[in-house]
Design brief:
The chain has about 475 residues and is mainly alpha-helical. The protein is built from 23 helices and 2 strands. The longest helix has 27 residues. About 0% of the residues have low confidence. It is a multi-pass membrane protein.
């Protein structure tokens, strides 16, 4: 284990993250809300810690980052980052948050979960509202991936770190020959989507502040809002349509966006099997949701039922977690259907949560192949995604991931029940946090403020497990990782 390299990278990334405190300072000055001191204090502390880590190892020889080092950096950084990100929440007296609540809000933002313990958003200082949205935006693509683009400046390769951060089972594919260029390409696409979303929201009637804030959480598939009423505060069908459109785009594998930009063509979207399954799932859930809302007469206007059904299908299917004002009153099985689809989640290589469409597709194809083998035991049946064969190693990895994912759900669900939460609250809370969704049912339908302290810490772990796709955390628990 190269602890000097790990410390160098951790210091660099903390220095990078400290700059996230500066935009809220400018927002505070512009709106005169008096919170700039808290952000400047947090900036100084995080910058100082980052410089300390960096300077202590500045004379050590730069070496290539190994795969094990990448796991340690990714896990350590998200834990340290979550604690650092909680400083403005904890220091701001207007919020009056406990240390637990401040960390919970920070973890939720950075992991793009969107679960909140803060109420009365409409009365909060603008700088705090902006900071919450900014945390989701930074966590969406992953500040670690941005750091990868800077690692060549240190003479340290970044492929191992990139592989631990990018979601999905096929992590060896790069968009460009150099990993730093890949990270830059991803961020360019991410930034372009954010700017386009901001302009669209602004043109649709949002204020510029709200347009920027909601574009951050939309493109990051986060779910935070600057208003208590969420994305539906303007009660605008056009804004809901725009939100659904950009949530859908953010849930697509970013490599498809990259090739669309590079080749000025959209044909490869329709050739990608994962994309077609992703689209098919969302269309199916939208039809079921719209039809159920209309048949039960919960919404009597067919077009309104269709609009709500499409919005909820995309919001939950991509694990964004935006809700409308009627969310707590959704009828019958619909809330459970929406929560179950979050376990599938968005595409691999996107900023969404869940197990990812590609893994579910692989598991389905593997199941079909096993059924065929019962009929033809001696047959060699290749498993393909599109026209490409998938190796057994990837299939085993996807199957193992899903098994561990379900096991984590069961363990966390039982822990929440043991803390005293009821079954519906526990189910929705672990589903919302493990899948980085944020929405809940029962006691957490509105927010997570009133649940007990132990449950909040358990859910913080669930959010980080979902954000890093479990394996980086679990691999650090193996003695062989440290001693082999």
């Amino acid at each position: 284990m190269q602890f000097s390299v790990i410390q160098q990278i951790l210091g660099l990334l903390l220095i990078l993250f400290s700059t996230a405190m500066l935009p809220p300072v400018m927002v505070s000055w512009f709106y005169h809300d008096g919170i700039e001191r808290e952000f400047l204090g947090a900036f100084s502390l995080i910058l100082g810690l980052g410089l300390l880590c960096w300077l202590l190892r500045r004379h050590h020889e730069n070496r290539e980052l190994r795969r094990r080092d990448g796991f340690v950096v990714a896990v350590m950084f998200w834990v340290v980052l979550s604690l650092s990100g909680s400083l403005p929440f904890f220091l701001t007296t207007e919020l009056d948050l406990s240390f637990t609540d401040a960390v919970f809000e920070s973890v939720s933002g950075l992991s793009t979960t969107g679960a909140t313990v803060i109420t009365s958003l409409d009365n909060l200082p603008k700088s705090i509202l902006f900071y919450r949205q900014e945390l989701e935006w930074l966590g969406g693509m992953g500040i670690v991936v941005l750091g990868v683009a800077l690692l060549p400046l240190l003479g340290i390769g970044g492929m191992q770190l990139y592989q631990t951060e990018i979601p999905g089972p096929m992590k060896t594919n790069k968009l460009t020959p150099r990993i730093a260029e890949t990270a830059k390409a991803l961020w360019l696409i991410y930034l372009s989507l954010t700017v386009a979303c901001t302009m669209a929201y602004w043109a649709a009637g949002m204020t510029l502040f709200d347009a920027v804030g909601h574009s951050f959480s939309t493109v990051a598939i986060g779910g935070f809002s600057t208003h208590d009423a969420g994305i539906g505060y303007l009660n605008s069908g056009l804004i809901e349509i725009l939100a659904a459109f950009f949530m859908f785009l953010a849930g697509v594998n970013f490599s498809l966006h990259f090739f669309a930009w590079r080749r000025l063509s959209v044909q490869h979207y329709w050739r990608d099997e994962e994309f077609k399954v992703y689209l098919g799932i969302l269309v199916t859930v939208a039809i079921l949701a719209s039809g159920y809302l209309w048949i039960t007469r919960y919404l009597t206007e067919p077009l309104l039922a269709l609009r709500h059904g499409i919005f909820y299908a995309i919001s939950f299917g991509t694990t964004t977690g935006f809700t409308l004002s009627d969310y707590p009153q959704l009828p019958g099985f619909l809330p459970i259907l929406l929560f179950m689809v979050t376990y599938i989640g968005a595409c691999g290589g996107s900023v969404g949560g869940g197990m990812k469409v590609i893994r579910v597709l692989l598991l389905y194809k593997q199941g079909v192949r096993e059924i065929k083998r019962l009929i033809h035991p001696g047959a060699i049946i290749p498993l393909k995604i599109g026209d490409k064969s998938v190796s057994d190693q990837i299939i085993e990895g996807a199957s193992g991931f899903i098994v561990i994912y379900v096991t984590c759900f069961i363990v966390i669900y039982l822990l929440l029940l043991a803390t005293g939460l009821d079954m519906m609250t526990s189910f929705s809370a672990v589903t919302g946090c493990l899948n980085n969704l944020g929405a809940g049912l029962g006691q957490v339908a509105a927010n997570f403020e009133d649940i007990n302290t132990l449950s909040k810490w358990v859910l913080c772990v669930a959010m980080l497990l979902g954000r890093l796709e479990i394996f980086p955390f679990l691999v650090l628990m193996l003695p062989s990782f440290w001693y082999d």
